[in-house]
Amino acid sequence: MEIKCVPLDSQLWDEFRGAYGNVSEEVKIVMGYCKDIPPQEKLRRLDPDQKSDYEIAFDNLCENLWHQMSFYPATYLALPYLVCLLQKKAEENDFKWQLRLISAIGAVLATDVWKDGDCYDNEILENYKNSIACVKEITMTFVKEYAISLKVLDEVAKQELLIGMLAILGEKELAFLSTCNFENECCFACEHCEYCYEGGALEDTEFLNMVEPAQPKEWDGISYDDTFTWYYGILKKWGLNQQAKLLLYHYGTFTCPECGKTSLLLDCMKQYYEIG
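Predicted structure:
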């Protein structure tokens, strides 16, 4: 599938901006078009890690695209470049940068929820959708080819990749919710009344008593058609047992203690952020 990238000298970059403005310079550096990379200043000022100017430019681009989990128009122009870079890293069998790019692209796509309308330019929008289709195929291949390496990643890296996979494979809302509930808690609101609950966790007896957990099915390790099945399957395979247990509640049946009506808890979690 052909991916077309908007030229970096196009005036569209001034129109389709990130959280901190025009991101064409960051894209230029990340794509390797700069012979000499100028010194970069971290947007993530609290990041303690020593990084190269290239890595800082990459982080700054990401921060521009997902700052405070909001969607920014620059994503429409930057995503095709990121997917082209991912294609290159896949051809080079570069595990580290494939992991980093898939996680980052997924985090960006997780912001593409509950926004006011789509891009007005049909060509840009179509190319954006083509980019998503392309990264979906690369992601499924990556998870299959590097199954052993992924299993031994640290917990945070696994969680970041899984959130990225959710968004890339079409579950953007669940990816957004997973990002907001990264500490294994969840907030939700009844779909039928004004009841609202914050901080639901496995250690919270009140929360557990309100939800009947779902029953998992065995994942075949191949199909990604049923999100609950593959997501739970990978959580268990990668040893993320607490997250797997909580997922059973997310996909479980919530009974409201005020109105007595039932709903899928996941729908109530979405309701919480929709009424936000």
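Summary: The chain is about 55% helix and 5% strand.
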